[in-house]
Amino acid sequence: MNKPKILVIGSVCNISGYSEHARTLVDALMTLDDKIDLYIQNTQWAMASTDIKYVNKYGNLLEKTHNFLATRADKDGNVNLYGVFDMSFQVRPPNEFQKVTPFDVGVTAALETTSAPGNWVNHCNQMSHVLVVSQHAKKNLVNTKAEDGSRIATPISIVPFGNNPSITTTDIYQEMGLTTSFNFLTVSQMAPRKNIQRMLAWFLQEFGNNEDVGLVIKSHTHNSSTADFHATRQYLRTFLDHIQPDRKCKVYFTHGNFSEERMLSLYDPNYIDCYITATHGEGFGIPIFNAACAGIPIVATNWSGHLDYLRMPTESKTGKKQIKSQFVKVNYDIAEVKQEHLMPGLIVEGCEWAYPKEQSFKVALRQAYSNNDQLKEGSQQLAEYVKQNYDISEIHKMYIDFVNSHLNNRTADTNDDQSTFFL
Length: 423
Prior knowledge:
- By secondary structure, this protein is of the alpha/beta class.
- It has helices at about 15-30, 50-55, 60-70, 120-125, 135-140, 175, 195-205, 225-245, 260-265, 285-295, 305-310, 360-370, 370-390, 390-405, and strands at about 5-10, 35-40, 80, 85-90, 105-110, 130, 155-160, 180-190, 215-220, 250-255, 275, 300, 310-315, 320-325, 330, 330-335, 350-355, 420.
């Protein structure tokens, strides 16, 4: 009996959150080599950089897929996927989901907002199942309504991101030349949804005159290119000088195509005392997750995907079981996104997300600075909980169990429109 053919569509070679998600899935499926025939159709995530490490890692599967699909391409390069694959995993925003096999699985972080565009309903309903990364992402889809009032009927399950304890880290802060005794860290794209400009302004208003305080920023605007480095650095310089040209605190900027080892080395509790974000919302929030795994105190908006792992079950002195937040919570208001936040097909008019409150964020910063030793105790407890419950082996097992449970339920393809996929 031939092994079932499974196609993964996603940006496995880029540097992005969706790419991390795609690689976690592919790595899990690669362990089923004796049961499935795996193919990867690599896609490009926006303007994200490509990492040659992943091109090499998945090169054999990428070449295998290219050669296989090329045999089915017409003169225009379109590939008829009708009856070719038994199952697909499509790691992308739902507006790009399409029916290509008898059992299609959409894999998505959904959106940072309270709901998604109405046209996502039809795309999600073309899937046999949808996998999301957090409770918030699931709510985002459940709350979504099409113009005709219909909702997403496809089953939605949660498979989160995972921590890989086998990745070794190095001391990168020696080469960066940190001279400050208390350091904050933030890792974020320079994008409106991350709210980084307001966060930086509030940070300077609190610590701009404190020469003992530093802020490490790992950021980019579009990708990891040299041109992007210069543009992002210049933007930050201009913005910070506008807020406080005579600041005494230190702001350290780093940029580029970091390896997994180098990226995780940013979250070094020997140098970093607190991770901060004033995000409007997260589907999951990989940088926040990395800080949690490292046992670093966290200041974050008290809303959206990162709450799944920043809260943990505890037991009170009286024996009462409860869920406790192990981070410094920033209060917020829920309101509609602004015009400058809109992203066609993704964040559209009418969507809502969190607006962190300035005073609450500043109070949280002061608390992280003044009570850091006390916060580190809770952060260490959180790290132990997260590393135990979000170990990458457990996440791989969730994907493997999902595949195994559905392979025996394959049905005949009823895709009458002869779906095509462009190579």
